[in-house]
Amino acid sequence: MSDKVLKKRGKHQPTTLLNIFRGTDASNTKFQTFEVPFQSGASVLDALIWANENLDQSLSFRYSCINANACKECMMLVDGEVEYACLKRLEKQVMRLEPLPNKKLIVDLVTDIVPPKEKFLTTT
Ligand code: FES
Question: Which residue has the higher pLDDT, 38 or 12?
């Protein structure tokens, strides 16, 4: 992955920066900075969706209900605090996004959040 800041296109819209954890395991991770449009009231999830659609389609995160606070799939660390990305408002300063701690990392901001009792059993 590139260390370059991935930027939005267009010159007149205000922007902000997301410093996002990338990777799949402890030996192969880094933070990558994305410049995204800033809009008052927009959520971190809005910015992640924009970055995925416009800058890097490999950027991985999870969500389902969007703003209903029902699915809890968008939980992640935002500046070191556990937050719902769909509820956390975008700030006009660098925001650091990381996967949930103490959960198995799958990729980028996606962790295994399924309770053990709900996992499918496999038979061999
Ligand atoms: S997307 Fe469901 S709680 Fe955030």
Answer: 38
